[in-house]
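[audit] Reproducing an earlier prediction to check determinism. Same input, same settings, fresh worker. If the tokens differ from the archived copy the diff job will pick it up downstream; this log only records the rerun itself.
[audit] input (343 residues):
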Amino acid sequence: MSALKVGIVGSGFGGIVHAPAFALHPRFEVIAIASPVNARRVADERRIPLAFASTQEMLAGAELDVVSVASPPFDHHPSVMAALAAGKHVLCEKPFAVNVAQAEEMVAAAERAGVATALAFEFRYVPTVRAVLELIENRHVGALREIEVARMGSELLERKTDRARGWWFDLERGGGVANAVMPHFFDLANQLAGRAPRATHGLLRTANPHRVDAQGPFSSTVADGAFAYVDYGDGIVARVSTDSTTVVESLTVAVHGEVRSAVANGPWFSDLALFAIGDDEQDELEIAESPYHRHRVIAPNIPWFLSLLDDFAERIDLGGGHGPTFADGLTVQRQLEAIGYTV
């Protein structure tokens, strides 16, 4: 079976994670990258044969099977729609879109095109997260009652000046922590609940709208904190949040049932310790590494992204599969809108 030829849109995360992950996977071959600024540089660094200034130029100038969209959020809709119109399989980064209408249009276009699609929710494949899901599925926690996916970080403290102005601080272009991590967190809570949300409530908060970088003062229009409660019905709720204005670096993925709690905590997904907590016990559980663990030296996300590509390749070859779908992206987009994000 010949390798599927891949074109990547975006030279940031696309160059750091998408390009090396696709190159490492035996089912794919990266032959092109598109970016208005850095395509040629990343192509040279990653030994990608072809470089283009835009998605349309790449689609016209390269024979592709797959397009992987890793550009900033404001570009997802036009690039995905162009790739679907050209009959390509598509993997799209989160957030899926900048509003629900765009997300709905992409889902409908994918159904009409009859191609395989996927969302880059690679944190589903973190071994510790998968272990928490298994504890739910084997009833180790008993009846599930509450899910917690919460992060505290310091990258947007008022005194921090190392993040330069640009689209990331622009709400209209899909910037901010709400779009950077809440799609992942909502998706994880939905997976742990094993169902779609019945209702999502919450808010976005901007504590530090006035910022400074090397060029001087500028204004941020994006949230630096996002806080949500999700109702799944049948007594299951979730607390989902991220706050980038604390001095703590902490991520918690936890489920609480009527028999036990399973609590994973650490600085980030790559360094989580998992504990099972009952009435009279607290045990740290040993978690097997990802089968792609050795590749984390390239980037921490690479092992989980490779597992996502396993599912994406299966969907292309056989249909179906268990990987994240455009429909999952639409569900999360509706949750983002419910807490106040839309353009």
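[audit] rerun output stored. Observation attached for the diff report: Residues 302-318 form the longest helix (17 residues).
[audit] end
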